[in-house]
Amino acid sequence: MKYFGFLIVFIVSLVLAVGLSVNFGQVPSLGYLMDPYHGFWQNAYSEDELAQETLSLEGLHAPVTVVYDQNLIPHVFAETEADLMMAQGYVTAQHRLWQMEFQTRAAAGRISEIVGSAALDFDRMQRRKGLGYGAEMGLQFLKEQEPATLELIHAYTEGVNRYIDQLDLSRMPVEYKILDYRPEEWTPYKTVLLLKYMADMLVGDKDLEFTNLRHVLGGAMVDRLFPDIPLDNDPVIEADHEWDFEPLPVHRPDSVAYPDFSLLMDPMPAPEPGVGSNNWAVAGEKTENGHPILANDPHLGLNLPSLWYAMQLSTPEYTVKGATLPGALGVISGFNEQVAWGVTNATRDVRDWYAITFKDNSRLEYRYNDQWIQSAVRVEEIAVKGDVSFMDTVIYTHYGPVVYDEDFRPNGQKKNFALKWTAHEGSNEQQTFLDLNAARDHGDYLAALDHYTAPAQNFVFASSQGDIAMKVQGKFPLKWPGQGKYLMDGNDPAFEWNGYIPSEHNPSTLNPARGFVSSANQYSVGESYPYYIFDNTFEDYRNRRINGRLREMEGITMADMQALQFDDFDLHAAEALPVMLEKLKQDTSRRFGPEEQALLSVLEKWDYYADPDVKGPVAFELWWDAFKGGVWKWLDQGDRPIVLPGNYMTTFLMKETPNDSIFDLPSTTGLHETVVDHLQTSFKRASQEWQALKAEQGEDVVWATYKNTTVQHLVPNFQSFGREGIFTGGGRSIVNATSERHGASWRMVVELGPTVRAHGIYPGGQSGNPGSRFYDNFIEKWAEGHYIDFGLHKRQEMENILFTTTLKPVD
């Protein structure tokens, strides 16, 4: 049997997965799973083994041809856009149905339905922060204002449901069998909800943490440690850009007082610091062939099944190819015959918290502008597998839902905090991507972005006409300086948002003189931009490394851009380590012991490249973590969450003010510590950890082994369906931002010449079935910085075809 060896491994893996799933809910009997006709045995296949030449699909208007290349990438050829969307829904469901449904269940707060009460707290948080409410508002917006988009979503939905209707129990994705439930009908609501889920994944706030920090340090010190504009800013839109609009006025109130809180609440999850995304485009004047080249690599959590699903979608009007998001229509990051585009997260504070005072325990009225106004009550019924449903009452104010209250994570404080968030509003992000798929020039690109609200993104663009562009797009609140940095008083109208920045005032650039555009989650603009911008997560290192290289490079090729995406140079280490070593050796009487000397030797020989087979990054991370932890230890507030200064600010203070009072530990009475004291202490600790690490992992411990990059299954308990110990370099704040659990979820490089050339890769495979050879077959290529040819194909010219399926209308 061709896959007999793999089948044995698959059986063992599945049994392990079942055992590991005990903590994630009830597990079906092994008898069901071992059923030779319907159980997991039937999932040990690759898609080409079950290929069908023709399939009947009710609702199609004309035949649709789906040609799969050797990597299981479908090339879908349809006569109309409606048929194309229906076919996309059907084909995506064939390979990613469980993933699509699981992610939307997670977004809706419905995981308890399939795993039991273990997920109840998670589900309550999802409901309370209003993702479902935001999707309802989005769907209502489509019905009232964008019905054409909704019609295409219905077509996609119909395609998904036609696949579910035809799905045989034996071919049901294995996760359904393990967790013992069945797929349910797809709806337009779920597609809208999926895009809200992406907004949730890519937004964060530190209002609670900043509030606690302000309580400890005072506002002036917080502003010093967290300046609104980064100290070394190489912005998304070139710093000397001139703005051609008259800004809307917004004024800070003469007297505004933030509530003086110190709180214990658990903060909501936020994007991991130092891990983000990159995109750029270079003009033809800087490339070898004289054509623009665009590159994009969004960095997200590394999961299986993969976040992205590669497709080519073709009608007589356009052909587009790239990374699709299972459950959403069209291509999210990709290109057609005229243009290419890509996205990175435009970190911006679009989520604010308000302290609410209710009139009484009924919470039917709350205080606003010193008057009592009516609240709304939304009862969330959460079904729980193996138990009765949980009824959660969520109060909605005019700001948004009250997430934290006496019934949910009060920590004895009984505080009520409402969340205001742009994702709660009606919008049509889906149309942005549909329009980009068919775009032909820069004007079409700008028109497509007008639909876009959240999550805010830096949209890079290039065209075969020679244009390159960047726009920071989202629906951004119009705020006075400092507004929203801390928890705000819900009674005071002075804390209300002042409307929104007009889309045409969002930062953008076209064909800048420097010959490139780029973004890497850094601060968006120079100081001349007239609107207040704040976020605590602006990136400090990748953007400067990318821009520095792009300024230097000429005669750029696609291979050059691929190499830059995979660049392992650690700019943070290059700026910090020489200073650390120099100050460490200031005390000439200091004698290093053998263990310290061994660590010192590794650090002094390192060239700052975090390649997988070197020791330097390991040694540096041990020392830096010990140093930074020691410097800011005095800010530890126990159970009260705070935000700590990042690597850039810590390095800046180490260099510029080594005797600053911030390095003095209050706990050591009579002593005045300086940065040198912290470096000495932390180096000794790091050398001890270095020796312990070598004793555990061997003398040849290297970065890839220490980092242990893992592509994890969406259900973390199913460890056997993931991949650990991937041998690859990079790291946080590095262009190749591959850390333990995050990294480039998709790499794409496109040259916009007369014939569009493209290469792409992502860490996984096209199939969602762990039994398929297409489940994770891209991982090794991705880890080594390789790509597959990703060019556009005409139906009659395709080579290396795996199989072809024709979807036919029902007679």
Automatic annotation (TrEMBL):
InterPro entries: Ntn_hydrolases_N, Pen/GL7ACA/AHL_acylase, Penicillin_amidase_A-knob, Penicillin_amidase_dom1, Penicillin_amidase_N_B-knob, S45. It holds the Pfam family Penicil_amidase. Keywords: Calcium, Hydrolase, Metal-binding, Zymogen. The active site is at S277 (nucleophile). One of its GO terms (biological process) is antibiotic biosynthetic process. Binds 1 Ca(2+) ion per dimer. Coiled coil: none annotated. Belongs to the peptidase S45 family. This is Penicilin amidase. It comes from Echinicola vietnamensis (strain DSM 17526 / LMG 23754 / KMM 6221).
